[in-house]
Amino acid sequence: MPNPRKKIRIRGLPRGARLLHDPAFNKGTAFTEAERDALGLRGLLPPNAHTQEEQVLRVMTNYRKKTDDLEKYIHLIALQDRNETLFYRVVLDHIEEMMPIIYTPTVGKACQEYGHIFRRPRGLYISARDRGRMVQVLRNWPYRRPRIIVVTDGERILGLGDLGAFGMGIPVGKLSLYTACAGVAPSLCLPITLDVGTNNETLLQDPLYTGLRQHRLRGDAYDAMIDEFIRAVQKVFPKVLVQFEDFANVNAFRLLHRYQDRICTFNDDIQGTASVTLAGIYSALRIAGGRLRDQTILFLGAGEAGIGIGDLIVAALQDEGMSLAEARRRCWFVDSKGLVVRGRDHLAEHKLPYAHEHPFCPDLASAIQTLRPTVLIGVSGMPRSFAQPIVETMARINPRPVIFALSNPTSKAECTAQEAYSWSEGRAIFASGSPFEPVTCLGQRFVPGQGNNAYIFPGVGLGVIAVESRRVTDRMFFAAARALAQQVLPADLEQGRIFPALSRIRDVSAHIAAAVAEVAYEQKHAVKRRPADLLAFMRAQMYEPDYLPYVG
Ligand code: NAD
To answer: Which of 236, 263, 290 is the last residue of a domain?
Structure first.
């Protein structure tokens, strides 16, 4: 992977005011005396040159004065628009504090308000009006060789539904995490929103809505637009990895199945979520004891996230030698109509593999009583659906019930950390989708884990692009899950924490990238010659948000 910043430096920088307005190269008050002279900056900046540390101090002082999370988000995006290096320095050095702002939950709020808080455009918009000329639109992107595209059509933004073109906050946020968490250089990242319209009537009536004022394309017209997009991407950026993000499940599974064996692509809501959750289960079993093959896993919610997790668990169990049928019977699903069982009317296709021969249960409580699950996973987007009797029953059945409330944002979580620990007398092994503060229960302090996809996708993406893998496979995702679980320290587990501290994310991502690359070589998808030490190679690829000297 080339280091794009070094190359551009050799080719020549913009000068003067243009340099100060180019976020990729701007250093603000940190330009040195020599740089100010050589680059026509003298007089355009206040005389006292600051260090990057002093600049970070200024940003953080202002940031912490803001009491509203959306204001913090706006503050950070404005910094990203002015000085990218400083933005990533700030984010990387304060990752635990910033993650809930640049990603869930605040990014959800930002998307809801995207046209209202709009300052400068970021990313590439390709709308239904651009059909027939997508190659041209892609060529308008100012960076020549992006290696990762995150693309959304805005139909299912987090748990918030159809936000149309306001969904751009998601690819922008995800790609910021690629850079912060795995050191993928910003110029290699391309956020894209496919504006196929929206069915959100509130947005269609909103004078500040930034997208097309039309209902969503469906059927053949939609598929043809996606197809043109994929073909255009392959033509203009042939080595790029395409990550699908926040598509509604009617399209997400179809598109994944259509393209995963043809191009270098994955769907983070399906495969990334699955991998981080599988990692959480592996870690939880380090506390609870037992093997994956002996678990009964019950999901509330049978959408993209739930079925994606089920499919990866099945793949991992098959890898351990279990038959497909046996592996599927380890996973059970309750959706809005009750337990998914054979013979139920009008089951969506993606649920059919999990429609087991079993008497129907009308709700979660009766399904728990009957199936006696060891692991309960909430991916329903239904707040408070793990009510007290649900958690208490799980705690009655299991000495250490594993309870994951993964729905985002926080307001949608199936239960809070406090509820999970107190209703289970401190025995639950809990993880959530959005962050919760540590909890003290019966005199013990618990640090709830966040099953954040940011643990997985940046490392997977880095591994894939660094060795130029032509495909992204399921095996890579369970290799990533194992690598992540191995990064959880005994000290973490003692506090009930089943994911590593985010402050270690760069190192964690390097291990995941190496594990993914290993699979790429085993499966013969990697094009690049194999480096002797994959872990050292991944570490060496990482972008560091330090100022490069432009002069001398
Ligand atoms: P989805 O719309 O594809 O699926 C939601 C599912 O929940 C559907 O099967 C629906 O039938 C079911 N459901 C709705 N109401 C229900 C009810 N009352 N009882 C039982 N089931 C009900 O959405 P998704 O992509 O699967 O995401 C679901 C949730 O998981 C969202 O809140 C999302 O934010 C969260 N999620 C979390 C992570 C993470 O933490 N890493 C990752 C992805 C998604």
So the answer is: 263
Task: Give the distance (Å) from ligand 1 centre to CA of residue 380.
Answer: 3
| Within a domain: 521 | yes
Query: The domain spanning residue 138 has which CATH number?
Result: 3.40.50.10380
Spacing, Cα 101 to ligand 1 middle (Å): 22
Note whether 130 and 137 are within 8 A (CB): yes
350 lines ligand 1 (CB under 6 A): no
- How many CB atoms within 10 Å of residue 471? 19
Q: Give the ligand 1 atom nearest the CA of 252.
A: 3
Evaluate whether residue 535 is within a structural domain.
Answer: yes
Place of tokens 């049928």: 325
Q: How far is CA 408 from the centre of its chain?
A: 12
Q: How many angstroms separate the CA atoms of 379 and 541, rounded? A: 35
Q: CA 185, CA 175: separation in Å to the nearest integer?
A: 10
CA distances from 476 to 315, 367, 430, 480, 520 (A): 11, 32, 25, 6, 7
The structure's pTM equals 0.93
Pocket test for ligand 1, best of 361, 406, 457 (most atoms within 8 A of CB): 406
Query: Cβ of 251: how many Cβ atoms within 10 Å?
Result: 21
**One-letter identity of residue 412:** K
How long, in residues, is the chain? 552
Give, for ligand 1, the residue of 152, 266, 335 to mutate: max count of ligand atoms closer than 8 Å to Cβ: 335
- Is residue 406 assigned to a domain? no
What is the span of the domain harbouring residue 506?
A: 455-471+480-541
Could you tell me if residue 442 is left (phi over 0), alpha (psi between -120 and 50 degrees) or otherwise beta? left
At 25 the three-state DSSP class reads coil
DSSP codes of every residue in 424-458? TTT--EEEESS----EEETTEEE--EE--GGGTHH
- Write the pLDDT tens digit of every residue in 24-57: 999 999 999 999 999 999 999 999 999 999 999 9
SS3 30: helix
Q: How far, in Å, is the centroid of ligand 1 from the Cα of 1?
A: 36
DSSP string, 129-151: GGTT-HHHHHHTSSSS---EEEE
Q: Is residue 175 included in any domain, yes or no?
A: yes
Residues with Cβ < 8 Å from 91, sequence gap 6 or more?
76, 98, 102, 176, 180
Query: Does any ligand 1 atom lie closer than 6 A to the CB of residue 275?
Result: no
Q: Reduced to 3 states, what is the DSSP secondary structure of residue 335?
A: strand
Q: Supply 135's token pair.
A: 């190659």
Domain final residue pick, 241, 263, 285: 263
Domain count, the chain: 2
Per-residue pLDDT reduced to its tens digit, 247-291 = 998 899 999 999 999 999 999 999 999 999 999 999 999 999 999
Per residue in 435-476, pLDDT (tens digit) is: 899 999 999 999 999 999 999 999 999 999 999 999 999 999
Q: How many CA atoms lie within 13 A of 414 on its CB side?
A: 26
284 C-alpha to ligand 1 centroid (Å): 22
